[in-house]
Give the backbone structure.
Amino acid sequence: MQQNGSSGSNGSNGSNGSDGSGGGSRERQALSFSPLPSASTRVRRFIQERRTLPLPRVMVVFSAAGDTEKPSDAMSGSDPADDDFRKPASPSPSLTLSKPLRAALGGQEQEFPEVISLNVGGMYFTTRLSTLRRFEDTMLAAMFSGRHYIPRDAEGRYFIDRDGAYFGDILNFLREGELPHRSRVRAVHREAQYYSIGPLLDSLEDIQPLTGERVRQAFLDLLPYYKENLERIVEIAKLRAMQKKARFAKLKICVYKEEMPITPYERPLFNSLRFERSDSEAKLFEHHCEVDVSFGPWEAVADVYDLLHCIVSDLAERGITAEQQCIGVCDKHLINHYYCKRPIYEFKITWW
């Protein structure tokens, strides 16, 4: 028992240990686990067998410009056990090339013939390309510059989705600077605004009736809430006519030019439109006449009758017939011997 124990404990004598252990040694070998070979052991084994070491697999992935794929995702298929490589992504020229470079290669500017056939809202016109490009800062010059797509009709004419009733006047100006007849000035002016033809706009605004309209508008700009009051006249007249089931409606409108109410006693004392009164005194004269709509005050040479003409004309422009007459003045007592005395007019709005 001692010999077996001593021989079994002597690990330095390999021969004795192997002979003395006998069947016990084989039993221990059956129960023991062999460790995995390390990296250095694998290298020595390949050297002894005179085999070449396997080269690491390297994969290069090409991605399109702007691709935000992470490197870890691109190399996920580089495991040695895998036999299939990830196919490299072929870059797309439309993605990698810059916009100027694409325009130079594939986006050539559109070329036009010298004679252009146009279809403007169903009306046909023929003109030279140079006529449409006469003024650079216009819509027509931009359309036919070659940088924009222009649709064509079934006959191959370039199509412009616009009423062509006054397009001939536009072409006549582009050809030789001809201006339209006075009856067509307003309509051609709207078309010139649409096509952004600055020289034509300037020429039209220097002739009647647009010149007079500019002077008239300068006067109306002095009046506060002129357009709003005009809308109120239409709405009130329409409501009253519908309520009474009548063909017309009547309104009371106050139109006054003076800034402060006056009386015959004040008239010789003040020669200007503004009266020199303190703020406390001015509040004593503030009031609202019992009317539907009030216009005024303003400081200009144009008087009350000029404003009445503007009101009637603007209503007629909208197809509304209006008649007016003075029915008196506002007799509201203000203070002491001061009364309002603002003129009041009755407007008759006829609907049919």
User: Anything to note?
Assistant: The CA atoms of residues 46 and 53 lie 7 Å apart.
